[in-house]
Amino acid sequence: MKIGVITYPGTLDDRDAQRAIKLAGATPVPLWHASDDLKGIDAVVLPGGFSYGDYLRCGAIAAQAPATKEVIKKAEKGLPILGICNGFQVLVEAHLLPGGLIRNEKQHFVCRDQRLRVENSDTRWTGMFSENEEITIPLKNGEGGYIADDETLKYLEDENLIAFRYLDVNPNGSMNEIAGLSNKQGNIVGLMPHPEHAVEPGFGPDTPIATRSGIDGLRFFQSVIGQVVG
């Protein structure tokens, strides 16, 4: 199975995503933002970073890139798409997921191990989780506050499209503690935390003041492999 990873100017987690895909058992395929050739991929990851320097709005310019426009076309045909942090912002700006993402409530960049509750395990990227399962995924963002109007929030709740919620603390002031969403078809998932940074034991310094993430993130990539190959 081939999973593409798009690199935009300012992307910084593309290599991490490629490594996670490889550890999960698939073949990572680097994709360039300026090309609409998706190289026959079976799924795609929009990774974290600061695409185009976060000018205009985070993800706004990346949403107009040739590679992203081709992804939008493929999304309608069921291509599995995972947007991580800046990738989530791109999905929102491309209108593949609803709502918006704004500056963190306390106006500070947040970097921490973040506990999440899995709200929807019926997607291409969450199939190896259990509903209501609690997991830990690293979080690092400055503009991760999820917002939407009342009608959109009701739709997300009623249709079970909230994929993940923050537990213990809401690190960026997101409405309804929303950490991640899926679309109705279940092929698109976007979230602010970084599963690609929790794919192997011993990641990061093992001290009380540093992230000590485990391997909960690996199942995102194993899930899509199982869904597509299976």
Describe this structure in words.
The protein has 230 residues and is an alpha/beta fold. The protein has one domain (2-229): 3-Layer(aba) Sandwich (Rossmann fold). It has 5 helices and 11 strands, in the order βαββαβαββββαβββα. The protein has helices at residues 14-24, 66-75, 86-93, 150-158, 218-229; strands at residues 2-7, 27-32, 43-46, 81-84, 100-102, 110-118, 134-141, 145-147, 162-166, 178-182, 188-191. The strands form 2 sheets. A 9-stranded mixed sheet has the order 2-1-3-4-11-10-9-6-7, with helices on both faces. A two-stranded antiparallel ribbon has the order 5-8. A hairpin with a 5-residue loop joins β10 (178-182) and β11 (188-191). α1 packs across α5. The longest helix is centred in the C-terminal third of the chain and has 12 residues, at 218-229. The termini are close together. The model has no long low-confidence stretch (mean pLDDT 93).
SSE topology sketch:
Layout: E1 2-7, H1 14-24, E2 27-32, E3 43-46, H2 66-75, E4 81-84, H3 86-93, E5 100-102, E6 110-118, E7 134-141, E8 145-147, H4 150-158, E9 162-166, E10 178-182, E11 188-191, H5 218-229
Parallel strand pairs: 1-2, 1-3, 3-4, 4-11
Antiparallel strand pairs: 5-8, 6-7, 6-9, 9-10, 10-11
Helix pairs in contact: 1-5
